Amino acid sequence: MVPKISAFHIACVFGLAASAGTARADGTQFPGTRPLGSGGAMRGFATGDAGPMLNPSGISLIRTYQVEGAYQYGKSQDSHDARISAVDSTSGLNLGGALYYAYHHERPDGGPGRASHLTGASLSFPFAEKVFVGGSVKYLRFDDSASERKTGLTFDAGLTIRPVAQVAVGAVGYNLRDLGTGFAPRGFGGGAAVLPVPALLLVFDAVVQKVEGADSAIYYMGGAEFSYAAAVAFRAGGGRDGITKNAYVTAGLSAISAEVGTIDIGFRQDVSGTAKTAVFGVSARLFVPSM
Questions:
Q1: Please, what are the domains in the chain?
Q2: Is the pTM of this model over 0.85?
Q3: CA distances (Å), 288 to each of 57, 206, 207, in order?
């Protein structure tokens, strides 16, 4: 048996920037491999590593303890993102916590490269298994357009309401302390999740994000996840990118071992616009047994 280690004592997941364009708020730049396959949506049911990525209040929706590492590549910005995370919601009161680290590097148009490092911690609290609140504190180190290294502390806050087992609605604010950088722009998102049957998850989200020197960008996205025999999961979705205005489609697949973990892949391809991009992501999740 693998010994139980608190999620507050290990650092966490590899994940990538999701597409063309300039700034991306957390949850659009870093949707994670599972949400990537479902159109980038999952804010209403942000379980596992999707919690600190998309909506920290979702960590307590299900009892799980997992460590995840992921990598994603974005073609148009020549962007590489790596992320590692640990998420634990197996405490007696179903309190949830996560630690994570993310690295981003991009070289748009073959120009000078830019990089950022992000370290964060999340907590979630359930109330009567109907209302879940959560937050993340994040420390960011980044190189701005003048190649000057800067640092800053910011935070996210989220809420999920699950009136019945088949429906959940979430809302989240990203980078509520504005650091004035495209690596961590302020944003607000929301989403709904419907589980008509236990094996099928339907998700629909929208995100509004601040863009320097321009009007706010609005993203729309949605998708589905279907699990078969607790051994494989299929995902599909699509949406509209708020910055490029491109429409896109997505797909994903997971190979699942209930005793060990999963291997996830996700893919996005723009289907409209002149500057189309493609994004590919892969991740591995390890399920840690409870003591």
A1: 7-287 (2.40.160.60)
A2: yes
A3: 21, 32, 32
